[in-house]
Amino acid sequence: MASAPIITDFVMYGARTAMADGLSHIEEQVKGIERAVVENPALAFDLAKTVVESACRTILSERKIEFGTHDDLPQLFKIVANNLPLLPVSASAEVEARRSLAQTLNGLHTALHGVCELRNAYGFAAHGKEWQRPAMESAQAVLAAQAADVIVGFLYRVHRQERNVEHSGQLEYVDNEAFNSHVDDANEQVQIFDLTYRPSEVLFAVDQNAYRDLLTSFEPDVHETEGVVIVETTGEGT
């Protein structure tokens, strides 16, 4: 019988990109996972959960978004996902793209539940339980590590891109007609003597930071976006 291939030089590219972009305190966790997938697969499950939790807590703290000290990882992920813009500002009105990205994020949420359940059942800490389960091997550990890597890399990249957008100098009023119409419908026209201005136009001209903030959180009120939310998944998630 042919032996299973030995996994060497596993690298968490997404997490390492996040480290280089400011998430430096996860370095030891990342290095630990990269070693553990070969040397101690059970520990890789523990660290995969830990590194995603560290990233979520950092993102929420940097964005000054409140979360509970006892929130489990799926809860933290859901808060992060619901407070990050899925699309860049210039494409905020692209309904189909928003729907597709939301579905992908739902998939990551499901994968995260799987990582948590694997950790609870087969992680290094689970070895102290009264009933001993069979040990997982490197192939299963790599799956959990890769899932964590994708989640950390994506969430932190979106977090940093959105925070840096105000320095890009690329915001254009004419590129956001759906948002402009939303602002105009919700506010009265601005009248100065005999001159009339669109509320969105005035907002863009006098306070682009406020315009950008509102645009970033803008959700088009269309039928196609209904039902595209982070789903709740049953099972152990802590």
What does this structure look like?
The chain is mainly alpha-helical. The protein has one domain. It has 9 helices and 2 strands, in the order αααααααββαα. It has helices at 13-20, 27-39, 41-62, 73-83, 95-122, 138-164, 177-186, 199-206, 208-216; strands at 190-192, 195-197. A two-stranded antiparallel sheet has the order 1-2. A hairpin with a 2-residue loop joins β1 (190-192) and β2. It is elongated and about 80 Å long. The model is unreliable at 222-236 (pLDDT under 50).
As residue ranges, the low-confidence spans are 222-236
Largest sheet features: 2 strands, antiparallel
Radius of gyration over C-alpha positions, nearest whole angstrom: 22 Å
Strand runs, count: 2
Element order: H for helix, E for strand: HHHHHHHEEHH
Strand fraction: under 5%
- Give average pLDDT, whole number: 81
Structural class: mainly alpha
Shape: elongated
Strand order of the largest sheet: 1-2
Helical fraction equals 55-70%
- The end-to-end distance, rounded to whole angstroms, is 39 Å
Number of domains: 1
User: Please, how many helices?
Assistant: 9
